[in-house]
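Folded chain entry —
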Amino acid sequence: MAAMRLAAAVKWYETAAVSQSKAAEIAGLSRAEFLAALGQFGVSPFQTTSEELREEAGGA
């Protein structure tokens, strides 16, 4: 059951449905533990789109 909660929390975080903090809470982990779990699932801890990065870089 815990593995299913973690997988769901990672997916919801990956799709920006929940924040890191909320996803960690759903998974029953600390935020640091959740960030480590993201790496195991191959999910970036950063939710920045390429458009947002371009805007921050000055439209380059």
